[in-house]
From TrEMBL:
Species, as recorded: Iocasia fonsfrigidae
Gene Ontology biological-process annotations: phosphoenolpyruvate-dependent sugar phosphotransferase system
Enzyme class: transferase
Family (UniProt): Belongs to the PEP-utilizing enzyme family.
Name recorded for this polypeptide: Phosphoenolpyruvate-protein phosphotransferase
Transmembrane segments: none
Active site: 254 (proton donor)
Gene from which this protein is expressed: ptsP
Keyword Magnesium set for record: yes
Cellular component, GO, one term: cytoplasm
Residue span relative to the full protein: 251 to 570 of 570
Coiled coil: 144-171
Annotated phosphoenolpyruvate binding sites: 48, 84, 206-207, 217
Assigned keywords, A-Z: Coiled coil, Cytoplasm, Kinase, Magnesium, Metal-binding, Phosphotransferase system, Sugar transport, Transferase, Transport
Domain PEP-utilising enzyme C-terminal: start-end pairs: 3-293
């Protein structure tokens, strides 16, 4: 089996009727880079930058971050690398910052909300990414956007970072693509409008399911509710994909469901542009995609969209 999977490395993720998608890797630390290169993934669809902040006793400075981002950019050559800006808060703490205790951390001061309040910290990261983007195909992605206002403020701060680099005569790539995660239901509802303001979407299903089902992703007691099979989730993902495509932008999925083989035919039916997953799943999903027919997947999607319970959805997907 291992040998068969190895042979898939250099083949594209393409269906029998020639629908091609990008199979990218999620990266939690740069230690995973070699495995990602070994698998010959189509890029890095989610570079979680939290490790740079969490594996230290203080905030990483611009130079430290620049070195890491540049190394990844260079190693991935022309393949796209989506760097997600700091997604701290929720269940991820930074002890050295002494943030206030919150009753509901996942509904609180996390990710882009934190970065928009702490411009000092955010600008350091944005500058490091802009500088490193001269050495490869880096893109910037903002997490947990809930509104057009937040996206606008994040983009203004990116402009500010560019201006400060220009004034300091430090070279950088000003053409970097800017995308956002869709992981808050409010953003999913406003997807048509948001899609006109960014170059790409990436659906973070871990959080999108948590917030749509109102079920804490870390709470065992409600784990059953944190499931991608609920029709509300399938329908919501489809709407986001359709909104992105109406606006002419690309859309991927980077939550755990991206690597769930039961859902692969559904995502192919939706015409998703990219699936980004832990590196260990990439070849299995590629093998599956190469056996699928997109026309058939579209027909199956029409049926799945009509179903009304998670049980029905899961049972149906098992027959595909
Ligand atoms: C997600 O929410 O689906 C996601 C990919 O981001 P994280 O798991 O890091 O919150
Ligand atoms: Mg998330």
């Amino acid at each position: 089996k291992q040998k068969k999977l190895a042979e898939l490395k250099d083949k594209p993720a393409i269906t029998r009727d020639n629908f091609k998608i990008q199979l990218a890797a999620n990266m939690g630390t740069d230690d995973e880079l070699d495995a990602i290169l070994d698998t010959n993934s189509d890029g890095i669809g989610l570079f979680r930058t939290e490790f740079l902040y969490m594996n230290n006793n203080s905030l990483p400075d611009e130079e430290t971050q620049y070195q890491v981002y540049r190394k990844v950019a260079k190693k991935m050559k022309d393949k796209p690398v989506i760097i997600r800006t700091l997604d701290i808060g929720g269940d991820k703490e930074l002890p050295y910052l002494e943030l206030p205790r919150e009753m509901n951390p996942f509904l609180g001061f996390r990710a882009i909300r934190f970065c928009l309040e702490r411009e000092d910290i955010f600008l350091v990261q944005l500058k490091a990414i802009l500088r490193a983007a001269q050495y490869g195909n880096l893109k910037i992605m903002f997490p947990l956007i809930s509104s057009l206002e937040e996206l606008d403020r994040a983009k203004k701060l990116l402009d500010k970072a560019k201006l400060e680099l220009t004034e300091a005569k430090i070279s950088f790539n000003s053409d970097i693509e800017v995308g956002m995660m869709i992981e808050v239901p409010a953003a999913a509802i406003m997807a048509d409008e948001l899609a006109r303001q960014v170059d790409f979407f990436s659906i973070g299903t871990n959080d999108l399911i948590q917030y749509t089902m109102a079920a804490d992703r870390t709470n065992e007691l409600v784990a059953k509710l944190h499931s991608p099979y609920y029709p509300a989730i399938i329908r919501l993902i489809k709407r986001i994909v359709d909104a992105a495509h109406r606006a002419g932008i690309k859309v991927g999925i980077c939550g755990e469901t991206a690597g769930n083989p039961l859902l692969t035919p559904i995502f192919i039916g939706m015409g998703i542009d990219e699936l980004s997953m832990s590196v260990g799943s990439i070849l299995d999903i590629k093998q599956l995609i190469r056996k699928l027919d997109q026309k058939e997947c579209k027909k199956n999607l029409v049926q799945v969209i009509k179903l009304t319970t998670a049980k029905q959805v899961k049972e149906y997907l098992k027959t595909l």
